[in-house]
C-alpha cells in the first residue's frame, strides 16, 4: 500500500512539473529555463510535502 502511494505521489509530481515547465518540443534537450523550472517545482513540492505530507499539490 505504501509503495502504491509513493508511486502515485511520484507520478503526480512528474506530471505536474512536466506540464508546468515543458512546453517547447523543438529540441530534444530541455532548455536551461525548463530545467530551472523543474528544479523549482520539485523543490516546492518537497518543501510542501515535508511540512504537510497529506497535502499533495493542494494548489
Could you please describe the fold and organization of this structure?
The chain is an all-alpha fold and 59 residues long. The protein has a single domain (2-51), classed as Mitochondrial import inner membrane translocase subunit tim13 like domains (Helix Hairpins, Orthogonal Bundle). Helix content is 68%, strand content 0%. The chain contains 2 helices and no strands. It has helices at 2-21, 32-51. Helix 1 (2-21) runs antiparallel to helix 2 (32-51). The mean pLDDT is 84. It comes from Gymnopus androsaceus JB14. Belongs to the small Tim family. One of its GO terms (cellular component) is mitochondrial inner membrane.
Number of strands: 0
DSSP helix count? 2
Write down the oligomeric state: single chain
CATH fold-level assignment: Helix Hairpins
CATH class: Mainly Alpha
Radius of gyration: 13 Å
- According to CATH, the homologous superfamily is Mitochondrial import inner membrane translocase subunit tim13 like domains
Largest beta sheet, briefly?
A: none
CATH architecture title: Orthogonal Bundle
As a percent range, the share of helical residues equals 55-70%
Mean pLDDT across residues? 84
- The first-to-last residue Cα distance is 25 Å
Specify the overall morphology: flat
Beta percentage is: under 5%
Structural class by SSE content: mainly alpha
What order do the helices and strands follow? HH
Low-confidence stretches: none
